[in-house]
């Protein structure tokens, strides 16, 4: 029996959300690997050498009710060289334009002065962005150390901030991180067509992949 009101399944569907996300952290904390894991394909090169990322790369995460645009940047650090200063400026320019900033802290490394300096920089440069924490490389340590790192990161950024432990190489907690990031974004339209994973030209990606091979092989 109908009372004249058309009720469909769409009434219960969550509102579509979208936003720009930037992962920050010291060099070699797993930011590019995390970006690739979230996108589901390789869009950012990775290397054991610090400062592998030299320019911003956008990876696009598409889910049913959210689109996340991930801006992969070089590691933010106290610069000691001209290259370091220029890379830092690139990160600072990016921070001012994103909705959510995820601070990446490896599970197998203690939080130090460099991490505290990054948090201070984020608060100064991006006061309107939402800060959250990501404990990366959880596959390298046991549960107790992961728990201790979660507590340490909570003390660093504040207990009122979201924190998610992940393993990018094992694909653990990646969907949980997507859900948390989606919840921190505002309702809005998709910025890119469904199915796109990056806005980088193919030539740029190929050049980056060649540079990645050179870093590991030379």
Features:
218 residues; alpha/beta; 6-stranded mixed beta sheet; 6 helices; 6 strands; 36% helix
Short description:
By secondary structure, the chain is α/β, with parallel strands linked by helices.
Can you describe what's shown?
By secondary structure, this protein is α/β, with parallel strands linked by helices. It has helices at 31-39, 82-95, 113-125, 143-157, 174-184, 202-217, and strands at residues 17-24, 57-63, 66-72, 100-106, 130-136, 163-165.
Contiguous low-pLDDT stretches (5 residues minimum) are 5-10, 45-55
The whole-number mean of residue pLDDT values reads 79
In terms of DSSP E residues, the strand content is 15-25%
How would the global form be characterised?
Answer: globular
| N- to C-terminal distance | 74 Å
Alpha plus pi helix count:
6
Which structural category do the helix and sheet elements fall into?
Answer: alpha/beta
- Number of β-strand runs: 6
Strand order of the largest sheet: 2-3-1-4-5-6
Radius of gyration: 18 Å
Order of helices and strands: EHEEHEHEHEHH
Question: Portion of residues in helices?
Answer: 25-40%
Largest sheet: 6 strands, mixed
């Amino acid at each position: 029996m109908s009372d004249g009101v058309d009720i469909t399944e769409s009434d219960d569907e969550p509102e579509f959300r979208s936003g720009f996300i930037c992962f920050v952290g010291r060099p070699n904390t797993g930011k590019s690997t995390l970006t690739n894991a979230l996108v589901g394909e390789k869009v950012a090169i990775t290397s054991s050498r610090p400062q592998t990322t030299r320019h911003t790369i956008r990876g696009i995460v598409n889910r049913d009710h959210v689109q996340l645009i991930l801006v992969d940047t070089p590691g933010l650090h106290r610069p000691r060289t001209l290259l370091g200063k220029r890379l830092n400026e690139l990160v600072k320019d990016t921070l001012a334009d994103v909705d959510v900033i995820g601070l990446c802290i490896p599970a197998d490394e203690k939080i130090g002065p460099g991490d505290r300096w990054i948090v201070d920089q984020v608060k100064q440069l991006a006061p309107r962005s939402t800060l959250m924490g990501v404990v990366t490389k959880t596959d390298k340590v046991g549960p107790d150390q992961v728990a201790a790192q979660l507590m340490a990161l909570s003390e660093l950024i504040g207990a009122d901030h979201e924190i998610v432990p992940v393993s990018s190489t094992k694909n653990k907690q990646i969907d949980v991180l997507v859900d948390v990031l989606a919840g921190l974004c505002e309702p809005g339209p998709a910025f890119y067509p469904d199915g796109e994973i990056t806005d980088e030209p193919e030539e740029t990606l190929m050049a980056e992949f060649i540079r990645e091979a050179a870093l590991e092989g030379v």
